[in-house]
């Protein structure tokens, strides 16, 4: 799952970069594809994926807290608990970045589309 999260975050970064840099046809393709995503089943799919990722994030955070509490009760953490704690912490941080980038990319997409439509009207 960690490799998938790295891939998703890299893809979001590329999309954000293409929206920021004015590379003619690539930016137009990204804007058109994001515009088509807003129509049809796109918004429901995006909300479903975001909610699923949020539930996975909460599950990882709960597991982190459980492992820390277990270590506090025993006074020390076993090597297996340390590995599990680090894995859950890495997954939680990657999912948090994914959710942050998703919110930022949709906000930037909205701003870019509004500015584009505003410039057309002028």
Automatic annotation (TrEMBL):
It comes from the Eukaryota. The chain crosses the membrane at residues 6-23, 44-65, 94-121. The keyword Endoplasmic reticulum applies. InterPro entries: BAP29/BAP31. GO terms for biological process: endoplasmic reticulum to Golgi vesicle-mediated transport; intracellular protein transport; protein localization to endoplasmic reticulum exit site. Belongs to the BCAP29/BCAP31 family. This is Endoplasmic reticulum transmembrane protein. GO terms for cellular component: endoplasmic reticulum membrane.
